[in-house]
From TrEMBL:
Residue spans of biased composition, Acidic residues class: 43-52
Organism the protein comes from: Nocardia aurantiaca
Source taxon at top rank: Bacteria
Biased composition (Basic and acidic residues): 1-24
Region (Disordered): 1-52
Protein's name according to its UniProt entry: Uncharacterized protein
Length: 52
């Protein structure tokens, strides 16, 4: 499954779940799950610019 656009928490949660299911996977070993969560957090912060 592929999605163009910024990382969101739903996608980060899927990545983290995959890493937990298989701790020996490239995703888990590379720390991509942590980077995905951090990117989702950053993207949440960027979405606040249009709040009144």
């Amino acid at each position: 499954m592929s999605k163009n656009g910024p990382m969101d928490h739903e996608a980060a949660d899927r990545i983290a779940a995959a890493a937990e299911r298989d701790p020996e996977s490239d995703t888990a070993q590379s720390g991509f799950d942590d980077r995905a969560a951090a990117a989702a957090d950053r993207n949440d912060d960027e979405d606040d610019w249009d709040d009144d």
